[in-house]
Amino acid sequence: MGQDILINWAPHETRVAVVEQGAVQEVHIERTLERGLVGNIYLGKVSRVLPGMQSAFIDIGLDRAAFLHVADLMPNIAAKHGNGRDGSPSGGGQKSANLLQPDPVLPIEKQIYEGQALMVQVLKDPIGTKGARLSAQISIAGRLLVFLPQDAHVGVSQKIPAEQRESLRRRLLALTSDLGGGFILRTNAEDATDQELADDIAYLRKTWARIKDAAVRLPPASLLHQDLSLMQRVMRDLVGAQTQAIRIDSREQFGELQRFATEFMPDTAPKLALHTGERPVFELFNVDEEIVKALSRRVDLKSGGYLIIDQTEALTTVDVNTGGFVGARNFDDTIFKTNLEAAQSIARQLRLRNLGGIIIVDFIDMVREDHREAVLTEFRKQIARDRVKTMCGTFSQLGLLEMTRKRTRESLAHLLSEVCPACQGRGEVKTARSLCYDILREILREARAFNPREFRVVASPKVVELFLDEESAHLAGLSDFIGKPISLQSDNAMTQEQYDIVLL
User: Which residue has the higher pLDDT, 284 or 116?
Assistant: First the structure.
């Protein structure tokens, strides 16, 4: 399946879209002031150890402390750091960072201590109120390999066919047996030559040497290594044999990418193309329009059916509806065809919106078992194309399909949007009449507690208008009951749910 990669660059923001068969499949956005942290390596400082949670908070220089679980430590850190058997530092807390590795059998309080310097890598960006998720198991990704400097493991990507893995592993062992550290061969290295692998190994070891040197020179809470920019990661991770062209609309960044590609992936350099047309590259391929649609709850299907996608703190729900689709011979076929189309669209929306965590899909109920199996097979086929790890169950007794998709960065909606100040994320606001009655009740409470000369209601124009019209009798009745005048003041800056009651 042919693929185009579009790169729209500006000093403040880089946007990348992956287009297949004319449809946008993925959108990646990196803002200069909000650049993601995943892959960054820091010299952290243990600020708090939590034995009850078997975890620790690590200061890496961000606004919020980051989170490290005992499962993300490595073997033998306690001995190498010179910790006593009771977990107390016996070597004065010398700054040797984490080139040192913990024992997963020991509780975390026996392995690290407050104030300790520890080299860590970001696994997940901070999301909402949660700090970044860390690992002390450092990995450095290259074009063909992933380097594990603290491990001796040599492995091959599970996405490579099983019959090829062992021969590839033997080749990799022959190249790395005398070097120390571990390596994992990535999927795109399946056909790499020994020289290409050797070049990638040299690049990764040189990078690790720079990181170790920085860990000795810099103070705790320092950045030791920053992951590649979005454009460079795209070149490293997204470009493959199916990529027809990589179009970029910045002459300066085009030159930078050419130099990067020439050094690290020369086969990719000829696919780079500078977009010079009058229309912006995102406009030419309708990417901006797709981004707007991806922020909507509703996704229309070509058949007339539609999806409703809702993100919550705990999970994402997808509801499939037939809508106006009546084209099949009978109702069962109508439902089946809608669900098949929905399976394809949902998989694309998960990628496009970068939805992660637990996802519940409510397909339209199907009576026939063969229809259910066909829809499940199609859905699994579509999500298998996803570069992000996914797991899909079967239909539950209630007809729901549960799945998970690994979450490493914020979703497109969280990146581009914020909670509505009017409804606070509920998606709806109280009616003007409900606000009128809230105000009447509050005036009555205030009248019992205070004795002002007058009450003044400051509210949105719609609420004030209702008080002057349909609710005027109730307002006048309350004024007579409390024996105080009540005046009204309209404020265009107030949302419908905002109001003030001023005691004069």
Answer: 116
Burial class (CB in 10 A: 0-12, 13-18, 19+), 103: middle
Calpha distance 59→53 (Å, rounded): 18
Answer yes or no: CATH 3.30.70.100 is held by domain 432-503: no
pLDDT of residue 236: 80
CA angle 114, 119, 123 (to 5 degrees): 105
Q: Among 16-20, 33-37, 402-406, 496-500, whose mean pLDDT is lowest? A: 33-37
User: What pLDDT is attached to residue 331?
Assistant: 80
Q: What are the domain boundaries of the chain?
A: 3-35+228-288, 41-222, 297-414, 432-503
SS3 content of the chain, % helix, strand, coil (to 5): 35, 25, 40
> Which candidate, 148, 147, 157, 118, places its Cα nearest to that of 134?
118
Q: Which long-range contacts (CB under 8 A, 24 or more apart) does 485-489 make?
A: 485/454, 485/455, 486/443, 486/454, 486/455, 486/456, 486/457, 487/454, 487/455, 487/456, 487/457, 488/456, 488/457, 488/459, 488/464, 489/456, 489/457, 489/458, 489/459, 489/464
Q: Which two tokens stand for residue 106?
A: 């020991």
Contact present, 18 and 24 (Cβ < 8 Å): yes
Tokens standing for residue 458: 């400051």
Rounded to whole angstroms, how far apart are CA atoms 95 and 118?
8
Distance CA 432, CA 175 (A): 73
pLDDT band for 105, please (50, 70, 90 cuts).
Answer: low
Q: Is the pLDDT of residue 31 over 80?
A: yes
Q: Write the pLDDT tens digit of every residue in 157-212.
A: 887 888 888 889 999 989 888 788 899 998 878 878 888 888 889 889 988 999 99
**DSSP conformation class of 178:** T
- Partners of residue 379 on adjacent β-strands: none
**Which CATH number describes the domain made up of 3-35+228-288?**
3.30.420.60
Residue 24 three-state SS: strand
* Intra-chain end-to-end CA distance of the chain, in Å: 72
Q: Which token pair is 383?
A: 């999500």
